[in-house]
Hints:
The chain has ten helices and four strands, in the order ββαααααββααααα.
Amino acid sequence: xxxxxxxxxxxxxxxxxxxxxxxxxxxxxxxxxxxxxxxxxxxxxxxxxxxxxxxxxxxxxxxxxxxxxxxxxxxxxxxxxxxxxxxxxxxxxxxxxxxxxxxxxxxxxxxxxxxxxxxxxxxxxxxxxxxxxxxxxxxxxxxxxxxxxxxxxxxxxxxxxxxxxxxxxxxxxxxxxxxxxxxxxxxxxxxxxxxxxxxxxxxxxxxxxxxxxxxxxxxxxxxxxxxxxxxxxxxxxxxxxxxxxxxxxxxxxxxxxxxxxxxxxxxxxxxxxxxxxxxxxxxxxxxxxxxxxxxxxxxxxxxxxxxxxxxxxxxxxxxxxxxxxxxxxxxxxxxxxxxxxxxxxxxxxxxxxxxxxxxxxxxxxxxxxxxxxxxx
Length: 376
């Protein structure tokens, strides 16, 4: 496909902001619905993850891991709140309807968020790998260092795909507007190199580095599995490895299709539309599944979520009891067999739910001394 420009003939590379001009009424209904459902679930899950992280930080103190998990969730929220709705709207209209500025920015923002996720996963692996070498005073968050790290992550992530702004363009054919990436004749060499460098630097290298760090942490914790702290670090490493692997597998079709389209632009044998749609669904699905994996496998976050749920349930029960007493006028007085009133033990038992009973039969009690600190 060739696109006429003012100076020369440019070669069509790929659609930006979603595959446009798809045939069939079903695709115009099913794809927006699927993306909308993924967005709703993903945004809700990431908001819940941020709330649990905040609760955990208040209970145990801030740490590098908590800060990086917050940054990871923020990247997922940007993808689900800004990028995915634009694709859903494009599939519904079968054309680009958001104007030329959004056309220039859509691929750049999406690849910037994906790069930010990959860099955050790599820093998570490095932070957990170096945790055992730190002294206790360095294990918790240093605000200045963490702020500089997050700023460096996003600056680098948004700088890597800046060429997407240059190659994206809006073409109007009658009443139909198409947002596409186009290849000028003099830029074919750069596009081929760019198609190799960006997936390697923004996807393959950071994800591989993160996976190696987590695997090393797991193997380091095996010889000291009887120690509570080592076992806990191994569990956290396994959870973060699961998140890294899930994102690596889910983002592989997206980066593979993107590199394919850049390397086959001149030959005219780009990836099929079905692969492009499947890749985008997998990409947004990874952002929706990440909070579910973390909240279900990461022990500190799971415990914080459980405590928060118990607290909410207790408050609701207290409110319901108060309403029942107010509607009844006076509370029922319990009496024994001789008619003597029994004391009200409701306030005595409040705050004593799920008490921890010490195990005095453990022959190695010193191994459980640090089990109470389930921080990140």
